[in-house]
Amino acid sequence: MTRRQKRLSVIVAGLAFLGAATGLTFYALGQKASYFYMPGDLATATVQPGQRIRLGGLVAKGTIERGQGATVAFSVTDKQKSVKVTYTGILPDLFREEQGVITEGSFGPDGVFVADSVLAKHDERYMPKEVADGLKAKGVWQESKSE
Amino acid sequence: MVETGHFALVLAFALSLVQMLVPLYGARAGNQKMMAVGGPVAVTGFALTALSFAALAIAYASSDFSVASVWENSHSLQPLIYKITGTWGNHEGSMLLWVLILTFFGALVAAFGSNLPATLKANVLAVQGAIGAAFFLFILATSNPFTRLNPAPIEGRDLNPVLQDLGLAIHPPLLYLGYVGFSICFSFSVAALIEGRIDASWARWVRPWTLVAWMFLTGGIAMGSYWAYYELGWGGFWFWDPVENASFMPWLAGTALLHSAIVMEKRSALKIWTLLLAILTFSLSLLGTFLVRSGVLTSVHAFATDPTRGVFILCILTLFIGGSLALFALRASRLTAGGLFHPISREGALVLNNLFLTTATATVLVGTLYPLALEAVTGGKISVGAPFFDLTFGPLMLPLLAIVPFGPLLAWKRGDVFAAAQRLMAAFAAALAAMLVTVLFVDGASVFAALGVGLAVWLVCGALTDLAVKSGFGSVTPAIMLRRFAGLPRSVFGTALAHLGLGLTLLGIVGTLSFGTEKILSMHAGETVELSGNTLRFEGLYPAQGPNYSEDRGRFVVIGADGNAKGEISSAKRFFPVRQTTTTESGIRTVWFSQLYLSLGDEGNDGSVVVRLWWKPLVTLIWGGALVMMAGAAMSLMDRRLRVGAPSRRKKLVPSASLS
Questions:
Q1: Is the peptide bond before B151 cis (omega within 30 degrees of 0)?
Q2: ipTM of the complex as predicted
Q3: Helix B38-61 vs helix B91-112: angle between axes, to the nearest 10 degrees?
Q4: CA distance B70 to B158
Q5: What is the tally of structural domains in chain B?
Q6: Could you report the per-residue pLDDT of B588-599, keeping only the tens digit for each?
C-alpha cells in the first residue's frame, strides 16, 4: 500500500465516521432535545401530548398539594397563565412557593403536565436562568438593584 | 499578609511576561543566556504564585472578612477544613488555583527538563509563560481575590452548603492538575511548530506529561462523579451536565493523544496528527474553563455572573486556539510524514481508536455547545441531556470498546487479526458465558444489559489475555512464565491495567443502570421497607445541631435475614441559616461492590417522611475502575523508557524531520 493509498483510506474512514456521527447527531437533536417553554408560551406553541418538553416558571402560591405517598401536585405560573403539574418523587431541597423551577416531562391527555424531574437549580438569586430570562422578557420580574 | 499576596500575584504576572518574551527571543537569536532565563523565572514565578495562594488561604482560614472574596464565601462558624477548602470554592480562588497549577507545571519543566534541547526548552517555557500572562492578567483585571472591603463586615455570607464537603478538598485540585497539565503538551506542540522540527524523541518527552495530566484528569472526573453521587442526593453518577462535559471532552481528546503519542514514539508516524491532538486537547481544557468560569451555563459550578469575565476568557480562548491553529496551518505541511504501516496493525488499531475518540469528542462538543448557539441565534431554549448522548456517544463507544482487546495483541507495522482473535478465544468465551448467565439467572435482564455485561467481561479478560500472552502462557513452563511476567515492561502492565479499569467502570455502569431498583414511599417511624433483598426499619427523625447548620436525621436499621439488626443507615436534611438553604445528606451502605442509597424527602403533616431508596448493584466499580485506570497510568509512568529525565542522554540530537 502506498503512502497515497494509506492516506486516502484514513481520510475515507475519517469521513465515514464524521458522516455517521453527524447523522446521529442531527437525528438525536431532532428527537431527543427538549424545548423550554413558559406557561404563557403554550397558547401559541403546538405541543403534542407525550412530547417531551421543559416547563419553567414560578411555583404558584397555595397550589402545592401532597397526595398519596410521594405524589405532589402544584401549579407553575409565569403570572399570566399557569399549568398544573404532577410529580412523583422527592422534590429538590430548594423547592418552595414562589420559587423558580424547571420541570421536565410531557402533557398527559387530560392537559396536566406529568413531570419526571423537577429542577430548582439556582444562581445567587434563587432563580434558574431560563426562568429569570423568561420572566424578564414578559416584564414580570425586574432584576433586583441591591446586587 | 493579604497585600503581600496581592503584590506577589502582580510580580508573578510581570515574571510571566519575562518568561514569555526573553527565552523566545533568545531561541530565535541563538542567545544561550537569554534562553537560560526561562528556567529560573518559571521556578520563581511558581514560588510567587504559591505565596499568593497561601496568603489567600490564610485569609480564608482566619476568616478575614475585610477581603471581599472571603466575606462572600466563608463564615466564622464553618469547620476549619471547609474554611481552607473554601479558598478555591469560588470564582476568584479557583482561578488562582488554576494559575498556581499552570506555573507548577512550568516549574516542573524547568526542573526536569535539563536534557531537553536548549531551544525547545526555551520555547516551551515561553509558551507556558504566555498562557500564564493571559490568565494572571485575567485574574488581576476581572477577578481579583484580594479586593478589600471597607468597612470590614463582621460576619461572612457562608460557603455554598453543597460545597461544604470533603469532595471540594480533592475534586478541583485533581481536576485542575489534569486540565492544566495538558498545557505542557500544548506548549511542546507550539514550541515544535515554532522550531519547525519534530521527531520521535519529542514524543518521548511529551508522553509522560500526557500520562500525568490524563491520570489526574481521570481521578478528578471520577471524584467529581462520586461527589455529585453522594452529595446531591439524586443517586446519579453522571448527568451530562455541560460542566461535566467540559471536563470530559479534554479527557476523551487526551485519551486519543495518549494513544497516538505511542505510535509517534515507537514508529514515528502520525506526527502531525499527534501535534494537532495536543493542541486540541488543551484547547478543550480552555473551552471548559470558559464554559465554567464565564457563567454562560446555569449550574452549581458556575459562580461567575459577570459578563466582562466571559468576554475576557473568550479573548484568551480565541488568541490561544486561533493562534496555535494558525501556526499549525502555516507550519504543519513542512513537517515530513512518518513511517508506513498496514491498516491491520497496532498502528492501524490506534488510528481507529483515535477516529472513534475524536468523533465521540465532537458529539459531546455539539451536545454541549448547540443549546448555547441556538439560544444566541434564535433565542430558543432547548436542553440536551442523557437521551441525546445515549444516542450519539453510546453507538460510538460500543464498537470502540469491542475492539480494545485486539489493539495490544496486534504487531506493529503488519498485524494478524486471526492470530489475535485466536488468542482472545478464552476471553470471548468468558464474555459469552457472562452474557448467558445474565440472561438466564438475573431477573429482568434486558438484551442490552446482557450485552453490556458481556462487553465489560470481554474488556477485563482481554486485558488479562494480553498479559498472559506476553508472558508466554501455554508455550513455556510456569516458572519461566512467572519470570517473563515479572520482566514485562511496566508500560505493558500500564496498558493492561488501564483497559481492565475501563472494563470495571463499564461493569459498574451497566450494573447500576440495568439492575438497579428504587422505591419512593412515605414512611412512619417503626415501619419497614424491603428492596432487592434488603430490609430497612425506619426509627424516626432525630434533630441535631451542627457548627453552622441544624439537621433532622432519619435513622434506619438494616435488618438481616435472621431478623436481627445488621447495621444502620442515616440520611439527613440540613438547614443552613446563613444562606437559608437546605441540603440533603444521603445515607449509603456499601455491600461488597454494591450500595444501598437512601435520601430523605419532605415531612408530611401526619409525621410521615418521604423516603427514596435505591439499590445500586456494582456501583462502586464505576469509580474503582477509574482508580485502576489511574494505577495503569502511574505504572506506565514508571516505565524506564518514559522516566522523566531518563530518555536519551545522547550528546547530539538527530532530528528526523527538519524544516530548514
A1: yes
A2: 0.74
A3: 150
A4: 9
A5: 4
A6: 999 999 999 999
Same domain, residue pair B453 and B487: yes
Residues B462-495: b if buried by 16+ CB within 10 A, e if exposed: bbbbbbbbbbebeeeeeeebeeebeeeebbbbbb
Cβ-nearest to A69 among B371, B385, B522 = B522
Domain termination site, one of B516, B547, B562: B516
Round to whole Å and give the CA distance between A64 and B594.
36
pTM exceeds cut of 0.95: no
The CB-side HSE value for B84 (13 A sphere, CA atoms) comes to 9
Q: What does the pLDDT look like over B475-504, one tens digit per residue?
A: 888 888 899 898 899 999 999 999 999 999
Backbone angles phi, psi at B658, to 5 degrees: -140, 150
Residue range B504-525: average pLDDT?
A: 92
B171 inside domain: no
- A12 touches B: beta carbon within 8 Å: no
Could you tell me how far CA B655 lies from the centroid of its own chain? 34
- Could you say which of B298, B355, B610 has the minimum Cβ distance to residue A13? B355
| CA pair distance B317, B311, nearest whole angstrom | 10
Interface of B with A in 242-301 (CB under 8 A): 298-300
For residue B646, the tally of other CB atoms under 10 A from its CB is 13
Residue B176 in any domain: the answer is no
Residue A82 phi, psi (nearest 5): -140, 155
Pair (B484, B527) in one structural domain: no
Going by their DSSP bridges, the two strands A71-77 and A65-66 should be labelled as: antiparallel
Q: Answer yes or no: do B351 and B326 share one domain.
A: yes
Give the per-residue pLDDT at B647. Answer: 44
Annotated domain spans of chain A = 1-33, 35-137
Round to whole Å and give the CA distance between A102 and A117.
8
The last residue of one of the domains, among B471, B496, B516, is: B516
pLDDT in tens, B329-384: 888 877 766 667 787 889 889 999 999 999 999 999 999 988 888 877 776 777 78
Which cell numbers hold the place of B221? 472526573
Is residue B5 located within the same domain as residue B143? yes
By the CB < 8 Å criterion, does A88 face chain B? Answer: yes
Cell triple for B69: 472574596
CATH topology of domain A35-137: OB fold (Dihydrolipoamide Acetyltransferase, E2P) (2.40.50)
Lowest mean pLDDT among A74-88, B79-93, B440-454, B637-651: B637-651
Pick from B220-224, B319-323, B481-485: least confident: B481-485
Do B455 and B556 lie in one domain? The reply is no
C-alpha to C-alpha distances, B573 to B161, B569, B603, nearest whole angstrom: 12, 14, 10
User: Does one domain contain both B538 and B592?
Assistant: yes
Name chain A contacts of B599, Cβ cutoff 8 Å. Answer: 90
For residue A141, the distance in angstroms to the closest alpha carbon of chain B comes to 18
For B465, the domain range is 424-516
What are the strands of the beta sheet with B594-603, ordered from one edge?
B517-523, B609-616, B594-603, B587-591
In chain B, residues with a C-beta closer than 8 Å to the C-beta of A8 are none
B218–chain A Cβ distance below 8 A for any pair:
no
pLDDT at residue number B648: 45
A31, A33, A90 member nearest B383 (Cβ): A33
CA-nearest of B149, B165, B6, B144 to B78 is B165
CA B222 distance to own-chain centroid:
7
Q: Is residue B448 part of a domain?
A: yes
The band of B630, judged by pLDDT with boundaries at 50, 70 and 90, is very high
Q: Is B569 on the interface with A (CB under 8 A)?
A: no
Q: What pLDDT was estimated at residue A45?
A: 74
Q: Are residues B489 and B525 in the same domain?
A: no
Q: Do residue B315 and residue B431 come from a single domain?
A: no
